[in-house]
Amino acid sequence: MLFLLWLVPAAPFFGAVLLLLFGSRWPRKLVALVGAASIAVAAAAAGGIAARFLIAPPPGHALTLHLWTWFSTGGFHPEVALYLDPLSLVMILVVTFVAFLIHVYSIGFMAGDAGYSRFFAYMNLFVGSMVTLVLAGDLLLLYLGWEGVGLCSYLLIGFWYRDPANGRAARKAFILTRVGDTAFTIGILLLFHALGTLEIPQMLARAPAVWAPGSGFAMAAAALLLGGAVGKSAQLPLQTWLPDAMAGPTPVSALIHAATMVTAGVYLIARMHLLFALAPKVQMAVAIVGAATLLLAGCSAFVQTDIKRVLAYSTMSQIGYMFLALGVGAWPAAIFHFMTHAFFKALLFLGAGMVIHALRGEHDIFRMGGLRPVLPSAYWTFLIAGCSLAGLPIVTAGFYSKDWIIASAAGNTALWVAALVGALLTSLYIYRLIFLVFFGPRHMPVAVKPGLAMVIPAWVLAVLSIGGGFGRAHFAALVTQAAVGAESSALTSGLASLAFLAGLVLAWAWWKRAAVARPAPTFVERFWYAGWGFDWLYDRLFVRPAMSAAAIGRGDFIDGFYRGIARWFGAASRALSRTESGNLRWYAAAIAAGTALFLAIAVFL
Amino acid sequence: MLIAFYIAGGVAVAATILMLLQLNAVHALLCLVVSLLALAIVFYTLGAPFAAVLEGIVYAGAIMVLFIFVMMLLNLGRAAVRTEKLWQPRGAWIGPVILALVLDGEFVYLLDRGAPAGHAPPPIGPIPVGISLFTTYLTGVELVSMLLLGAIVAAYRLGWRRRERAAPEAELECVEEVWGVPQ
Amino acid sequence: MIRDALALAAILFGLGLVGVLVRRNILFVLMSVEVMLSGAALAFIAAGARWGQPDGQVVFLFILAMAAAEVSVGLALLLALYHQYNTLDTNVASRMKG
Predict the structure, then answer these.
(1) Residue among B103, B109, B110 minimizing CB distance to A592
(2) pLDDT reading at A438 higher than 70
(3) Residue A422 contacts residue A295 (beta carbons within 8 Å)
(4) Chain A partners (3+ C-beta pairs within 8 A)
(5) Which residues of A touch B112 (CB under 8 A)?
(6) pTM of the prediction?
(7) What are the sequence ranges of the domains in chain A?
(8) With the CA atoms of A512, A514, A515 and A517 taken in that order, what torsion angle do they form, in degrees rounded to the nearest 10?
(9) Structural contact between residues C22 and B23, judged by C-beta atoms closer than 8 angstroms
(10) What chain A residue is nearest to C94 in terms of C-alpha separation?
(11) How far is C85 from chain A, CA to nearest CA, in Å?
(12) CA atoms within 13 A on the CB side of A412
């Protein structure tokens, strides 16, 4: 098991290095093979570890693999150590397996692209960083993985770099998550200062001893960690980057911005839940952030016109659910929802990718329609995923995970109601999407049908979206190593199912009306469409002042000095190049003049 | 001897200046030949009769004849004279003359610093020259012969033109036209 | 006399230099180069006469041979240039400009 454990991050990193160095010279089949095989190795290793873990769990149900000491200066020696416990085991299983399926899908989706090897290299790098993040036994190593996924997100959002809009989206994502990362860094420093170590098991053991519940330090540290999580997971107030991040290729959106990277914040809070338990006010803040984002994003998703933006807001909303669960102390529910969400959200993106690929890059759902008969695989898998997202009772994974979360929130009425309203909104927007894309009259012809590379991973995920929810009691027991089961109540389940049905019916009614005459957007619709005005607010509050300050500093004398140097060199070069007239006699004159000069120097000096 | 030296020297300089000012290539060549012959006499007055004869035979005789052959091939006519005039504005002389004066000034300054008195040197005939040539400077002789061989090859290759050219009649026409308009 | 011979050589050299720099016709440039060479040859002869040795004349022989080689190659080049550009203007062959 120890051997397999370091293989999980090592295989994708190795694949990334190979592809970065040699990928551009290899044939496409080889690139695809290396790219997918490295993830397959990681997934197989994760599977092997899981089997061993379940059959013969290590003492304390946790395992630390010390690889080496990163550095050592004056009492601070962070370790490169991999920590395996049920939480990280679940995470790596989901991450590697979904990543593998998406890599196989990408073989079909990115087939004609010029940056094929670059794509797989970055994806491998991403998976390696994500697994490092999850398996990190030391907070600093976790931060390394955190930064790594941020970097890969930037690289992959701006993958088609020739279009400047993609670069802007990538920069926006990076800068916003950076704000969160800064908070995270300060939190790490604070934690080290107070607890003296950054190794996670030791930290969590020492924290209750050092800090009383509700102490200022604990609150500050937890709040800073929350800041980091909020940035990475696109929650309020750092959520504006996620819809724009859809500029990247669809497999990127599926892997990074649905299943894995955006859940890094959830993982962080789940991992440090003992710390958050010491700061109840911050924990409540987590729940409030989750609930607010959940509702806000749900409303926005309902009015979007770009198929991927609907799914982006949907992701934001579902992570809001996970934050809600974390906020009420039910972190196993959050992780369970993460697992099911990874399955159906990745599948939704894969299905959207199939539609986009088939229509040669069309993203506007109002120009799609009637794709059900022509794209059967896309339709059925998308439908299964959509039902799982909305929480179709009994037969879908999403129902069980969402039900668990709503039941956990039952202690706080406001949060409980918010969660139920969120379920209604979810059902509304996803069925609106399904009706608009797959039903009704066809507006565009289908150019390309998806190949097997795209269809098979979709069906695998479809099966998981259905069956992935059974056995949540076992899941809870495994993850918490205690005899707690999953919370559930008949009332909650009943109301959740009602919300699902209401959403479906209302979506159908809306679609029927919209099919006849599409009304002009009202102010509320436009407000929701723009993400509740956050972009506008941040632009006025932060971007413009920063740009004006930069513009003031642009023409100062330091800049002028350096630009003057450059200008002088340019002028000198132009003057010197005029002496190369190509004229024979000019050169002869130059020789003669030089001779005269040297003679003069030799004679007179 | 001394007078002969100064007269011949003066003729050489005068002929060279004339050559520079000529517009017709053949006239300039003739001036150059005169200059070279005058130079041969200067060599003789300096006690180098062998060099003087060689100058007359090889330089003025063979090399200048090469020039004449080429001019024959080029077949420059009266139009060439006109273009020559166009190509020489007054202002073009200033820079080079100044440069040459500076250079010559430096030479003269160097000469003034340490040069012996003037008297006619004793003649050194061909025999000492030959002995020196084939004993002390034998390597140089071999190198010069290789140089000449290289020059033969180079001249042959540079002068070689492809077979597929225009018919001879068209060639003549081309040559006539070209000098109608200055380029 | 030696000094005057050397002065004469310098004058001839200078005149040749002026000719090279001023004239645009390649033929004249080549002729001016010949003048420069003869100036240098005179300097060598004068030096040999000064020291009373035949070495000056030996070098003069070498210069002569070299001048012959140079003229033949130079004229071949001139003919090639003429056939390429149909003119004898040196300014035309300026593709190395810039």
Answers:
(1) B103
(2) yes
(3) yes
(4) B, C
(5) none
(6) 0.70
(7) 304-519, 556-604
(8) 130
(9) no
(10) A582
(11) 15
(12) 17
